Amino acid sequence: MLDRNTIIGFSLILALLVGWAYFLKPSDAEIEAYKRQQDSLKIAEVQQDSLAKTVIDSAKTNAVLTAANDSNMAVQTFGTFAAYAKGTEQFSTIENEELKITVSNKGGRIYRVELKKYKTYEKKDLVLLDGAENVQSFDFSTVDNKIINTTDLYFTPTLADDKKSISMKVNIGNNQYIEQLYAFDENNNMLKYNLNLVGLEKVIQRNKTSIDLNWAVNLKVQEKTREAEERVSTIFYRIKDDEPTKISEGKEDKENITSNVHWVSYKQQYFNQTIIADKGFTDAVLETKNDPYKTNLRKFSSQLTIPYNHTANESFAMKIYYGPNHYKTLEKLDISLERIVTLGWGIFRWVNKYIVINVFDFLSRYIGSFGIIILLLTLLIKTALLPLVYKSYLSAAKMRLLKPELDEIKEKYDGDMTKMQPENMKLYKKAGVNPFGGCIPVLLQLPILFAMFQFFPSAFELRQQSFLWAEDLSTFDNVLNLPFTIPFYGDHVSLFALLMTISSVAYAMYNNQATGVTGQMKWLGMFMPVIFLFTLNSFAAGLNYYYFVSNLVTIAQQLIIKGFVDEKKLHSELQENKKKPVTKSKFQQKLEDMAKSRGVDLNNMGKK
Fold first, then answer.
1. Into how many domains does the chain fold?
2. Burial 105-126 (b: 16+ CB within 10 A, else e)
3. What residues pair up with 419 in beta bridges, in sequence order?
4. Is 551 helix (H, G, I), strand (E, B) or coil?
């Protein structure tokens, strides 16, 4: 029960609340102003909704207008082909045992080519071309004066079930279309490529008798030494029924060809991509450019002219080879493409073509190590040259035995060459010695020496083949990386190059002893191998290995021959020869007759 004070408290609180409400209630004017404010807010919301709707409607209208403008622009630019000038780039892939080729619907072109069985020096997938910077497109003019480049068109792909062929087509209706057809050939590295133009005889400008094929590729670095790969990368081409030709290697060049071109090849050190026209391109403009940023190896481009006869159905058949510069493989294509493999010229090429390559091919069927194959090749070559080595040694031995008598002549005439030379020749003639007998066998061996110099740096067989400490016989074997660069030598040490140099110096020293060479010639023979070291330090390990083994075998042959030659007996034979009457050859007799007719007595020269 509430007491008196509590009741009085509650009554005061209630009175305060009633009074507060009464004195703070809004006036009639304030209530009217609030109503007007609410009405204004509702009107503003309605106006905002109306503005938003107007903006949306305007955007929709602008989009429609933009699309209409784009459509009008496309028609103005591409004419009949306007419907195919817009789309989204998509990719399709065809492949076989050797190749994986990605084709883009934008332009219907080859976008990427991977050689599945090979790797780069860095053991990455070997990709010959990749990316939008590579071009494969056709240019032609239409009757409504539109210049069409197929790069701007989106083709419709039709991929075969076995994924070994694909058709890329732009169909403008009424059986009128452009088709690029790709299909693998029986040769695993060859791709058939057909351009089919159907029903376009009234679309393509009537005065145009050709279509241009634009083909440009940024070559990728595949090997260890960029400089070596760049140096030998160039464009080869073959005019119908003629020998292949190349434009300048390693530097920028451009060439216009107005003859029928059978094929054009973009050749790198160990791989190439070649486009072959069954009927030939009527003209060609070929160009090579270096990459100043060193991102790619080099850039090659071609503009190839395809004849067009304005018939209802025209097809231009081509093939594209993507693969290694393997001589035997290219030779089987029977289009002279093997000529892009560097084998030297003249006799050097014959040595490589008919001897070295065939020996390599035969031995590689039974032996897995190319280091052993090079050793066997060296032994076979040096065995075949053994008769020449024997003659060379025998001639050198005779010259060494005659040296005391030659020194007497030199001392007698006080080194006067005009007086010494006739006397020396007389001595040679009496002793039955040919002073050039030692040179001729050496000269006959030079074709082999230079043929090897051409073969090893370009031999695909050696690519990524290891032997002993060399990881790759096709490039230099660096057993030590230097913290600095030596001019002309490089920033690494090639052990095979060092061994080649040491063996060459050793052979020169032995040869000097065997021939009795003195003076400047003695030091020149030992100095030259050191000069070659600076050149060969960055060359293929296979080449230096061959020269090293060849030097060792030559020294061994000389030592063996020395054991069979009795120099005392040989000296006696020379002395006996001097007692015999000198027989003159017809050539010598003719020289003497000519000299006598001029009042010169060869037999008495040097006696004065």
1. 3
2. bbbbbbbbbbbeebeebeeeeb
3. none
4. helix
Q: Could you tell me the pTM of the whole model?
A: 0.77
Same domain, 356 and 328: no
Cβ 80 vs Cβ 203: under 8 Å: yes
Q: How far apart, in whole angstroms, are the C-alpha atoms of residue 504 and residue 519?
A: 19
How far is Cα 224 from Cα 472, in angstroms, rounded to an integer?
Answer: 9
CA–CA distance, 537 with 496 (Å, rounded to integer)? 8
Residue 607 domain flag: no
Contact 396, 440 (CB under 8 A): no
Please report the DSSP string for 181-207 in residue order: EEEE-SSTTEEEEEEEEES-TTTB-TT
Q: Are strands 147-149 and 135-141 parallel, antiparallel or unpaired?
A: antiparallel
Q: How many beta carbons lie within 10 A of that of residue 222, not counting itself?
A: 23
Residue range of the domain that includes 424: 349-472+539-579
459 and 331 in one domain? Answer: no
- Residue 590 domain-assigned (yes or no): no
| Interval 490-545: pLDDT, tens | 888 999 999 999 998 888 887 777 666 666 666 676 778 888 888 899 899 999 99
Tell whether 406 and 284 lie within a shared domain. no
Q: What's the token pair of residue 493? A: 């040490």
